[in-house]
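User: Some background: our group keeps a shared notebook of sequences we're curious about, and every so often someone picks one and asks for a predicted structure to add to the entry. Today it's my turn. The entry only has the sequence so far, pasted here. Could you supply the structure so I can complete it?
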Amino acid sequence: MLSFALKEELAAIVGSAYIKDDPESLITHSYDGTPMLQSLPDAVVYPGTTGEVSRIMKALASHRIPVVSRGSGTNLCGGTVPVQGGVVMVMHRMNRILEVDLDNLTAVVQPGLITKSFIAHVESLGLFYPPDPSSMSISTIGGNIAECSGGLRGLKYGTTKDYVLGLEAVLASGEIIRTGGKLMKDVAGYDLTKLLVGSEGTLAIVTEATLKLVPPPKHKKTMLAMFRNIYDAARTVSTIIESRIIPSTLEFLDNATVKVVDDYARLGLPRDMEAILLIEQDGEPEPVERDIARIEAICRQENAHSVTVAESEEESLKLLTARRSAFTALARLKPTTILEDATVPRSRIADMVLEINRIAARHNVNICTFGHAGDGNLHPTATTDARDHEEIERVEAAFEEIFEAAIRLGGTITGEHGVGLVKSPYLEWKVGPEGVELMKAVKQAFDPHNLLNPGKIFAKSSRKRVVLQHE
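Assistant: Of course. Here's the predicted structure to add to the notebook entry:
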């Protein structure tokens, strides 16, 4: 519990309406998009300006009170669960587009801005912001920056880190720093901008971001390739990339996911296909048409059962919306849905998909797999019931083996969800003990009293299982 004096101090900063410690507010901010994790904060505060964030941090730092900054709480790694209590700082009041600079093709925005709203505004001006996380209808730009969110367009356009040019952020001490700017080149010292992107709120609280915009593609084509053999589908992904074609979207859905998505979106998808690839290319009209024709030939060469090209923008949008609905569709099956991510080199996609299937069968659990196959990022998703403790143990054991398999195949434990709380025991598998210690030293330099999102990224103890060597 915060002292009465500290609550009064915070109320003087933000106004009494913007600090809450009633049971409903505390419960609402005790969990995020991650299943089976909950921890009550002591209070919730809603700053309206960078200056207020700075003053709040100075007040809380003087009392050594932990702070968890939060957008919409859509993350899937336990990243905004306040495991050590303290204050949850919700950034939704800071939700403005401060500037769109048409000369420099940049935008300056506040962290509480909803991603989809920003994309829509930019597109209304004839520009393009490519990062498109599946949660973009509710997730915030600040949350995207904290997790370095990816999305369906990540293969061709990159992820959030590739579009953040500069940041304004508040340190644990309350000091305000500014990094980068409207610059395409800047090598003045360490790249603090890139360091803060993906740091999951453990190093600083982002209060403003300068983002890169690009011209929109002039033409798009979307196609659906269906396979009776899952290995053929996965191999097709590698063959497309080997052919020096980089689609804007190259998504994979296994049979179990196809059935659930079709039930949800009613697209009339063939339910006997073992896998489907959803492929989109964009750019200048002539190269797009040429790429789509070549991709279709590759799919048929790799034993696709059928290939269809969307005949209209409406049909294309319907297919992409169906893919974005995969998690929502799967969540209807059972009370608990655990959506994970693991990334491998694109050449090992087929091996990873088959390994996930073998692991699920071995543990007798239901795991559907979909994801951004073009950049090697798969989302094995378990549908289960948190009340069935024995099954949950089998699910957790299966995911542990899936992370091991990803490492063994030259991959990583997370491609876009982040480490947070859920994957912290596995971080050492990826970066080694020396890497963990170096990261802890960075954390110590930014936040010597461990006040910003404590308990995340660094586990109290790592998993004991031996890390496997890359093949």
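Suggested note for the entry: The chain has four domains: 4-90, 97-212, 219-329, 333-446. The first strand starts at residue 19 and ends at 20.
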